[in-house]
Amino acid sequence: MVVKIGFESLIGMGSQILDGAVIPEQCLVGAGSLVTGALMTRTLKETGSPVPPRE
Fold first, then answer.
1. Number of C-alpha atoms within 13 angstroms, CB side, residue 4?
2. CB atoms near residue 13 (< 10 Å)
3. Which domain holds residue 7?
4. How many domains is the chain partitioned into structurally?
């Protein structure tokens, strides 16, 4: 599977991005977060373990 990270997105240090994750443009993923699915909203700030997928 492929991981997609959008233009101008920032991934915090120590974050884990699993196979099949989709991070949209201008998204901020907080340090130490676990991304397991698709984050569908632009200009989003997400943290947590795991980060809840958005539709």
1. 9
2. 7
3. 1-40+47-51
4. 1
